[in-house]
Design goal:
Layout lengths: L5 H14 L7 H8 L3 H18 L3 E5 L5 E5 L8 H11 L5 E2 L3 E2 L2 H4 L2 H12 L9 E5 L4 H11 L3 E4 L10 E7 L6 E7 L8 E9 L3 H11 L4 E11 L10 E11 L4 E6 L5
Parallel strand pairs: 5-6, 5-9, 9-10, 10-11
Antiparallel strand pairs: 1-2, 3-4, 7-8, 11-12
């Protein structure tokens, strides 16, 4: 029978928990894995819990009761993401990101696995203590950060399409008004994608007036889903009055002037 040293056991526990955030593991799982007593497994977890908390690398929570155990929460303090947020903010202010027509290039950040993972974790933070059934996003650019948010919450990702897909079966479709350009657009979601009465979090990469988020909320009504809140990576400062209220952003685009070759970005107040 293999006898594992404490540093080996703790390393494996960390690996398992970090790859399965918000997943409940019974203490017996680790006792059987390492062939150790309950007291030894408890000590290992307490050491790991203390270390993670000390360095701000997340939190191990204990759930009491017969069906209880432990689970790993990837984020326990926004402060640990402070330097990351400053770095991303500086990158977003690079004038080279201005695309003719008044658009902002963000694909390199959103499609970076490490950046998307951290952005998704931060977006998940307000919902870590809530019972979430799914994270919902609309195709296409917001998918990576929404996926990482879903991973952090350990729930499925549901993707709203801009057109019907035959391969997804019957769908529910609605028309909505784009908040910024006042254009009528369509979005649809397969009936099989989301259980009725689900509790959902809406995630998107960019918001100007909030028309897309509002459309997503209206589509969720068709599934009798409860929207716990909405998070976006970037929201523009103008228009100041959005068509949705229950949302938060990581960054605020204060100004983007193509002629002046200027971008001014701020970290949103709740993260400062």
């Amino acid at each position: 029978m293999n006898i594992y040293k404490r540093y080996e056991r703790i390393s494996v526990i960390l690996k398992i928990l970090s790859e399965n955030p918000n997943t409940l593991f019974n203490l017996n799982y680790f006792m059987d894995l390492f062939k150790t007593a309950k007291s030894t497994a408890s000590e290992d977890i307490e050491i790991l819990k203390s270390t993670l908390k000390k360095f701000g690398f997340g939190e191990i929570k204990t759930v009491a009761g017969a069906g209880g155990g432990i689970k790993y929460i990837p984020i326990n303090s926004i402060d640990s993401y402070h330097e990351f947020m400053i770095d991303i903010c500086k990158k977003l202010e690079d004038p080279k990101r201005i695309i003719p027509g008044g658009f902002l290039y963000t694909a390199d950040i959103i499609y970076s696995p490490s950046a998307a993972n951290k952005i998704g974790e931060i977006l998940s933070h307000p919902f870590q203590e809530k019972e979430v059934d799914a994270v919902v996003t609309v195709e296409t650019k917001g998918i990576p950060i929404a996926l990482m948010c879903a991973r952090s919450l350990n729930v499925p990702l549901v993707i709203i399409r801009q057109d019907n897909r035959v391969t997804e079966g019957s769908s529910v479709s609605i028309n909505y008004v784009s908040g910024s350009k006042m254009q009528i657009r369509a979005m649809s979601l397969s009936r099989r994608s989301l259980e009725r009465n689900s509790k959902v979090v809406l995630i998107d990469d960019f918001m100007k007036a909030g028309g897309t988020i509002k459309g997503m909320m209206e589509l969720m009504n068709e599934f009798d889903a409860e929207v716990l809140g909405a998070g976006v990576m970037i929201a523009t400062k103008e228009p100041e009055v959005k068509v949705v209220k229950n949302y938060f952003s990581l960054f605020t685009l204060v100004e983007m002037d193509e002629e002046k070759n200027l971008i001014e970005m701020e970290i949103s107040d709740w993260l400062k």
